[in-house]
Amino acid sequence: MCKNAYTPSDFAALYASFDAPISAINCGERCAPHNEGGAPFCCDLRHAVPTAYQAEWEYLEQHTDLWHLWQDRSSGKSSSLAEQAPEGQVLIACRGHRACQRKFRSLTCRAFPFFPYITVSGEFVGLSYYWEYQDRCWVISNLHLVDATYRTQFVTVYDALFERMPEEREVFRYFSSQMRRLFSRKHRAIPLLHRNGGYYRITPRNGRQRRIDPAKLPKFGDYQIAAEMPFSDEILSSVSPEQH
Ligand code: SF4
Ligand code: SF4
Predict the structure, then answer these.
(1) Which of 127, 138, 234, 240 to mutate to test the pocket of ligand 1 (most atoms within 8 A of CB)?
(2) Tell me, what's the pLDDT at 5?
(3) Considering only CA atoms, which residue is closest to atom 2 of ligand 2?
(4) What's the mean per-residue pLDDT of the chain?
(5) Sequence spans of domains, the chain
(6) For 40-49, what is the mean pLDDT?
(7) Which atom of ligand 1 is nearest to the CA of 30?
(8) Does 41 contact ligand 1 (Cβ within 6 A)?
(9) Are strands 67-69 and 89-94 parallel, antiparallel or unpaired?
(10) Does residue 94's CB lie within 6 angstroms of at least one atom of ligand 2?
(11) CA of residue 72 to ligand 2 center, whole Å
């Protein structure tokens, strides 16, 4: 690990600098009604297990009882999932969406559903999303509603993180290349929330970026069906999850 890597005490300031809501609309209220059990998908271990950097975990462990190390009680699955934790990170689990402490959300909670998109030439140009959640995550179907301050904070935090932990840039560079490969096979353009504030489609084959109207980006799953209905207001959960 890089000698400039974060220490546990750095995470108070890092979290404070990445605290803007992802949208003016509480997205957890939008997706939770579509999940059996009523939890937002990204707060439900059946759908996503958060990770934390080792120093981040130490900070959380010292300051809150919200988190514990993830353990799978179902036999056999534990080791294979734990082995997938990226180097220098641990899998963690919180006490659930009803007990969320916004101030102590992990970096992965704050970033979800986005990751820093890195071009072939290694440039961090903006945010794209974890495509495997496109049918569940309301934000992915409503990219035009992502808050500008959230986007700016995301970019600032990852600029600083890549400066101090250059190996993380390589992790996301590899992940971005995987997305290009997959989307190219599917003849899909990669959506990008550019760091300049605009919305773009990237042609995965050649990296060409075209500016687009974000309201015209596709919707997926239940959100696509709801948008096509004459009265598309969605039912909100009776339990209001923490603002994401
Ligand atoms: S980020 Fe997506 S999955 Fe998470 S609460 Fe918001 S809409 Fe739901
Ligand atoms: S946002 Fe809150 S409830 Fe959801 S996974 Fe993170 S800490 Fe847990």
Answers:
(1) 138
(2) 85
(3) 100
(4) 91
(5) 10-228
(6) 97
(7) 7
(8) yes
(9) antiparallel
(10) yes
(11) 18
What pLDDT score was predicted for residue 4? Answer: 74
Centre of ligand 2 to C-alpha 109, Å, is 6
Give the model confidence (pLDDT) of 121-151 as tens digits.
Answer: 999 999 999 999 999 999 999 999 999 999 9
Q: Say which amino acid occupies 62.
A: Q
Whether 73 shows a pLDDT value over 70: the answer reads no
Q: Which ligand is nearest to the CA of 94?
A: 2
Q: Model confidence at 3, in pLDDT bands (50, 70, 90)?
A: low
**What's the pTM?**
0.91
Regarding the beta carbon of 31 and ligand 1, being less than 6 Å apart is answered yes
Which is the closest atom of ligand 2 to the Cα of 48? 5
Q: Kindly report the number of other CB atoms within 10 A of residue 186's CB atom.
A: 10
Tokens describing residue 85? 């934790």
**In the beta sheet, which residues pair with residue 200?**
192, 211
CA 158 – ligand 2 centroid, Å: 20
What's the token pair of residue 120? 């072939």
- pLDDT tier, 84 (very low <50, low <70, confident <90, very high otherwise): confident
